[in-house]
Amino acid sequence: MILLSPISGLHVQEIVDAQVLSINAPLRASAYAFGYSSDRNNRQLMVYCNGTTEACTYSGFNGARLLCGMDNSGYGSSIVQQYDVNNAIGYQTYVYVFRLSNSPNYIHGAKFDTNFKRMKFKALKTIPTESGEDSEHFGKKDL
Q1: For the chain, how far is it from start to end, CA to CA, in angstroms?
Q2: Cβ(121)–Cβ(80) under 8 Å?
């Protein structure tokens, strides 16, 4: 996410209605991945996969994997849980970062964890009050 200086008191994500981030979301949950795969209309058509996120099989990686045929051009795509298909809103919980050659039908997503939260709020130069919960959601209201 790129944060731009506010114009008339609004950030760009408030204008385009960006997804809310979820910190330390559950590992096994229903999820959707959205992105632009190079094998679909020359990356001009958004594609999605849906299924259940599960533990990543890559040693030492803090994230999840999702059964998905999106190719490598989809790097950086959102993986969203609690997605409401009628209103197109949900919680972004992971971001697609790689595929493994020995499991090409899975995409692997980096988890938005406490370290990510610290980095994000350090960039904003604000630190929210800790809630003590394992999972937190934050988005437009926190900016």
Answers
A1: 12
A2: no
H/E element holding 50? strand 46-52
Instruction: Sketch the domain layout of the chain as residue ranges.
Output: 21-125
Place of tokens 């795969």: 37
Q: Which CATH superfamily is domain 21-125 in?
A: Trypsin-like serine proteases (2.40.10.10)
Closest CA relative to residue 128, chosen from 10, 41, 23: 23
Per-residue pLDDT of the chain (143 residues; tens, 9 = 90+): 444 556 566 655 555 556 677 888 888 999 999 888 776 666 667 888 999 999 888 888 889 999 998 877 777 888 999 988 887 788 888 988 998 888 889 999 998 888 877 776 665 554 444 444 444 555 544 43
Side chain identity at residue 127, one-letter code: I
Q: What is the pTM of this model?
A: 0.70
